Task: structure prediction
Amino acid sequence: MFRSHTCGELRSSHIQTKVTLSGWVQKVRDKGFVVWVDLRDRYGITQLVFDEERSSDKLITEARKLGREFVIQVEGEVIERSSKNPQLNTGDIEILVSELQILNEALLPPFTIEDETDGGVELRMKYRYLDIRRNPIKNNLIFRSKVTMEVRKYLSEQGFIEVETPYLIKSTPEGARDFVVPSRMNAGQFYALPQSPQTFKQLLMVGGLDKYFQIVKCFRDEDLRADRQPEFTQIDCEMAFVEQEDILNAFEGLTRHLLKTIRGIETDKFPRLTYDDAMRTYGNDKPDIRFDMRFGELNAVSQHKDFQVFNSAELVVGIAVPGGASFTRKEIDALVDWVRRPQIGAKGMVYVKCNEDGSYKSSVDKFYDQDDLGKWAEATNAVPGDIICVLSGEAMSTRTQLSALRMEMAERLGLRNPSEFAPLWVVDFPLLEMDEETGDYHAMHHPFTSPKPGQLELLETDPGSVRANAYDLVLNGNEIGGGSIRIHDKKIQATMFRHLGFSEKEAKEQFGFLMDAFQYGAPPHGGIAFGLDRFVAILGGQETIRDFIAFPKNNSGRDVMIDAPARIDENQLKELSLKLDIQKRG
Amino acid sequence: MFRSHTCGELRSSHIQTKVTLSGWVQKVRDKGFVVWVDLRDRYGITQLVFDEERSSDKLITEARKLGREFVIQVEGEVIERSSKNPQLNTGDIEILVSELQILNEALLPPFTIEDETDGGVELRMKYRYLDIRRNPIKNNLIFRSKVTMEVRKYLSEQGFIEVETPYLIKSTPEGARDFVVPSRMNAGQFYALPQSPQTFKQLLMVGGLDKYFQIVKCFRDEDLRADRQPEFTQIDCEMAFVEQEDILNAFEGLTRHLLKTIRGIETDKFPRLTYDDAMRTYGNDKPDIRFDMRFGELNAVSQHKDFQVFNSAELVVGIAVPGGASFTRKEIDALVDWVRRPQIGAKGMVYVKCNEDGSYKSSVDKFYDQDDLGKWAEATNAVPGDIICVLSGEAMSTRTQLSALRMEMAERLGLRNPSEFAPLWVVDFPLLEMDEETGDYHAMHHPFTSPKPGQLELLETDPGSVRANAYDLVLNGNEIGGGSIRIHDKKIQATMFRHLGFSEKEAKEQFGFLMDAFQYGAPPHGGIAFGLDRFVAILGGQETIRDFIAFPKNNSGRDVMIDAPARIDENQLKELSLKLDIQKRG
Result:
């Protein structure tokens, strides 16, 4: 036993107790006649004191030699501090040290182990084990553990069974995104790592397990975008004998439970928006509804004059930005530049200032009178003091542009408060989405999603209009969960595969086992999967998922700490019946 | 909502209630004027009744057409059964059905969905989703979920934090056993799947997390022996600032908690045996101590006569088998044949019957008198009625042979009671073990295990004698957990690597990041990992781990249900910069 107490535990009630502590040296302050050492462990910081009056020369000399991050063990007596530190749980006391042992020395760390560190991201990733010593990262990992424990407790109490599904499975048609694993024992053959346990959880429903969940790693070999990881964690869930309403209620319950137990926040019944309404109202299928600025469609009140930009547009749409009437000319010009950046792609922006006196001043006063502009204000719910920002053009891209502007304005106005939580369900997603390059339709969610009742026939005539029993849980502008009611009928599943461009042979090769299973009595079922990394980050009031992952990979999929991936030796390749075949890139 | 109640829920208090149930048709019994259907779901079986008096013709006709494993939904009224079934929770009632809907039809399943099925292992694996419908498998999966939940609750309450470590890591020196994952984004480079999170949990200790656990999948590409899986699950744990005693206490606590909450069994403090004592007393480092039959070493009392077999043996050792004095000549001959089978490998067996009258009758009466045999009885704790079985030869192999005989006799005598639990710690394992072919020493546990204090020097002179701070938790003859106190000193770790035959370069390449980490203030630490699959099986009173895994692989590492591993297409290989290189086998 290296300690009698932790460094976060001692209070004034412990005064005069003999204690043993162990931990890291956070700081040494040498005032000549007295040396203070801050000793740190996971639980807190305790101040050690060595002084010329009460400590031996030897001890005080040793204390002076302690370096930052040395690992030490001390024995001593808890005494009252003369100058108390109310910032610290242990701030009423200090330890008068009688024995000091260095358990391990430490090189000077490459960055400071403080809440605000001087280390850049690269360096912190390379020395992640030191980064984890810092409170922000350490607390995030503890927070994550607490969240997953609450998820498990809640779902278990609701009768869900956690089942581990296999990691060594089979490559699926979205094959290019699978990580594969060569099999030594089956030369020339490969396992694949799961992108999700989708088919297995459906098989568990066929198997009668009724309510399944799993917190599980998933893998996707995609070109990584910022803040995407090749391995990520899902809360994966499935229920049998349910309709969409049952799933929404069950997992609204989970989310509400987490907000309550983790953040102490009570939430009302979550609002629901159809996909179409979400797109129309927020230009986005994962709207942040912590703030308003809903879209006002202006076609009817803006296409009757000689302004050709609007007249030729499929959609004219605006938002009212609170307080924006006070923007200077320069600020507005900057905003126009912002929406014209290639990342946003708008051609320009029309604005209307809603003056405090009820009048309007716009960039298109040449075309529109006060009466026209009043109608725009009405459509966008603008009030005096607001500025109305109006974009126009092809409907889909204009909505996307205005959504980006809406988020940017909210950010600038401080409306994206990380301690506020505004969950909602987005429902009735399209079943299919079109690949703009090839014109082919893909499953928007996945090929097992069931169309809305009675819409199967539309697949033949108007595939883009078919709506699915699919839903997303959105929190503060992030999709944190998504799922669907599945097809449980073998014939409908076969129809779906056909419409998704699978030949019968391909469908059989890839999903034969699932279609076989559906012949033996598949119950109606559906489910949902939450992206745990992001869910935890948002619950923690943060955006960077990497700060909630113990050992994340960088944007090239590398772990810079262990330096992986790496070459393997020839023998190992040979055993796997493989040869490298590296193409020179022109 | 497809149901108002589950099939395990209704009692006589529900009589006259209108209910909706959904589930699978377990059985249809058609008595002409009345048709009974057993409806099954995860929660139980409820009897449905259709009869000519109370049901419409149409309904009863439909009921007659129901096949086994059809998925149906019924509405009806709960009524009292005329002949109650006390075997069934719902046996007091039945449902008089008023509406019947077939949700999905089912082909005749390839084996019966009953507790005792007619399906062989192969067939059950191919249709695992049907196998899971059977109570024994379903209950095992529910049991496993319950065990893991208890593990998490207990460890969380003890301040352990569950941290997810990465799955895409780096190949380690025991490279041949790693599954590797080619990286598309880093051509010619590979990740490896972890054999365990060993280095990461040590880094978490360096990172100050203090108490870590994780229930985590691990991977080993070994030639599979019976009941070994290429992917398996560990309860992986690590603590900082601990000595061996702290770890043993912490995880004895966990094990005792599980025995109590899961099986309702209170256990005393677990006995502890050194590795040397375990080998001497049971010939085995994972002894089953639910029964006695301890080894009695007989060299001193058997090598003083003219029996050359014993005189030339390094070890003469016996066990007293209870009740064995009544074995017939034929039974004893069969036993001799049994120990001489190549799997056991003994040259022969000497026996001594301990007659009820206190006399002895042995197969070596020519050499030993009653007085000699009395001393053998004393050494093996034999009492009248026992038979003493004696083997001799080279010490290590003789112990192994006698251990096999001891287990076999216990099995035959019914002493391996699956509802009895006898945990113990085996401690002080050798640090190294010799490869008999090459004469090289390998780490018995792993290269991070610390030698006992003061024994480091012995590495130079007598490496085989060095004992480690390593321990196993043994339950009913199975190693269910093993761990060690780790080396936390960079210099000692370097010495260890040298003795294990790593060049400095190899050590740096493979474990550079760990040795680097040890420079920045590594605390003393240690841990343990439990094999969850086996632990759960034993807690469940069973031996076959496959029955506690939802989707296990067979002995060739194949998932016969999904038919994995499998070929992948050329494009995928090309993207991974790989070519197949399949050698013809001569």
